[in-house]
Amino acid sequence: MTLIHIVLFKFRPEVSEEHKDTFIRELKTLKSLPCVKNGRLLVGSPSVTNPIERSKGFQVALVSYHEDKAALAEYQASDEHHRVTSTYMFPYKEDLVRFDFEVDAEDEYMCHFPLLA
Question: Start and end of every Stress-response A/B barrel domain (predicted)?
Fold first, then answer.
């Protein structure tokens, strides 16, 4: 089974681009956690949604893959995750949306793709 974790981040207006860039770099380090399935963690910014208003002001997106709910819980509880979110996100956030879902068995094959180093 695969569980997909999606988070959208919105910073307060006064937060600098430099800070946002640092946050993105730090988020990307979380792909090395063993609870992230095969290192599949993507971070994207800025939104290229057209019209941009449909992005509702969210500035950074994270999508990560986990083996199951226990692996996602391990990810959430990790010291590394706590360090990144408590240092670079929560003191600066305006809003955050999280959505997690289990991939249906018939779609699981789409979660198995070769990784390029």
Answer: 3-101
